[in-house]
Amino acid sequence: MDFAGQLLGVLSLQAMDKYNVEKDIAAYIKKEFDKKYNPTWHCVVGRNFGSYVTHETKHFLYFYMGQMAVLLFKSG
């Protein structure tokens, strides 16, 4: 796993400890990645969702933390 992937794991844990609402978890992760890697990042967090996105090459991360999925990608 690359550094961005490791950072996403750490930020996801921090966000899930800090917030209970999926929208707030996603907002926290998105804002942190915008600060660290420049805008524009998009984040989706949840237990059940579909997606169809266009993203920049090598700027797409998707994984599960328990039953919670985290989708993060850069576009724009």
TrEMBL record:
Keywords: Cytoplasm, Cytoskeleton, Dynein, Microtubule, Motor protein. GO terms for biological process: microtubule-based process. It comes from the Eukaryota. Pfam families: Dynein_light. The keyword Cytoplasm applies. It is found in: Cytoplasm, Cytoskeleton. The keyword Cytoplasm applies. GO terms for cellular component: cytoplasmic dynein complex; microtubule. GO terms for molecular function: dynein intermediate chain binding. InterPro entries: DLC_sf, Dynein_light_1/2_CS, Dynein_light_chain_typ-1/2. Belongs to the dynein light chain family. PANTHER family: DYNEIN LIGHT CHAIN (PTHR11886). This is Dynein light chain. It comes from Chara braunii (Braun's stonewort).
